[in-house]
């Protein structure tokens, strides 16, 4: 049982990763909050977050040539830190990617309903838009992976283009630019801890290049190239865009605007002011496609985890069934769609707010889960190369990943301490939202130990490259 071989190239992988990050959604929807919390140092926060992610990518891509598995974190962590840790991580990955994807579908419904009403005067409730998104994502997930890459490529190009229009307009029509946001001293004048919660979260999903290694052409070359390209692009693009947002209002006023009544719309307002109303309307439309592209990317990542774990029998084996026509994991696709419908319908019946509850709560759990996986994966790289660096320099496979592990661990502590910035909730609710991550990790680890005791031969094959060809 295997996915389509040699189906996607470097550019396709970059589209999957950058689309999952949803640059327009992050810049228009989250960056104002980061500016309000972190002050004018927000661009530097995004740049430093990119450095942390880059350190992680150095070791992660070095290991990609030795582990090729659609359950990327599962295989990487299992090979470096042991099979029990790997399987525990796999279960965390399954709930994290699924929750982020489902939350994005709810956010799509909110953005679509608002945009269609404001721009075209068409009033359709968010519930209908969300369910339409689930259906469309499911259809694209079932079809050949190359079609998803094309859809993501178009959506990504358009959202990047509209942000470039905004940035050029600020440079041409603005009152000049200030380098003050890049002064390290500014990091200590605002809420840097809370800001890093948001800036590091903007990179969630970049590690997805490894998920598609089984479907990539020449993965030993394409996976590292795509990972570096995606991380570099996101770091520089985020940094420059946030810098332009601040310059659009002026360094002395930007933070005040971000914390004011119109802070949530400051990017749209600035776009209308500097580039024209047409650009702001286009941005409203493209934030809908941005959210859809991100939902599709996380849907595809979720189905690959379902497939990988079904193939190894640690989730129901039918999840590993492949469509003979499209080469897609069709049972995993249907499972993810059904799960999405169940969560969305439960939210509808409970009367939950689609953005502040369904979107923010699911993404809160998902983000902390993925960050924990990144930290463990960084440590697993060190463990994997500790005795034999396999021709790599110590800086790439030992120093960089260990540094990434330490920095990610610090940021995870900041995330937990400032979790309300992600979820909008407090107290018991936040504790309950964090709890599933350690619980499912423990469940997976215990299952691995049970397999080791009862089926030692099968246990030996878990997370290995040989198992992926079974």
Automatic annotation (TrEMBL):
The record's section on InterPro entries has:
AA-permease/SLC12A_dom, APC_superfamily
Quote the protein name from its UniProt record. Amino acid transporter
Q: Which organism is it from?
A: Nonomuraea africana
The UniProt entry lists membrane topology as: Multi-pass membrane protein
Places the protein is found: Membrane
**Chief location of this protein?**
membrane
Question: Which top-rank group of organisms is this from?
Answer: Bacteria
Swiss-Prot/TrEMBL keywords: Membrane, Transmembrane, Transmembrane helix
Write out the transmembrane intervals. 12-38, 44-67, 88-114, 126-145, 152-172, 192-214, 226-246, 282-307, 328-352, 358-385, 397-417, 429-449
Q: Which residues are in the Amino acid permease/ SLC12A domain?
A: 13-453
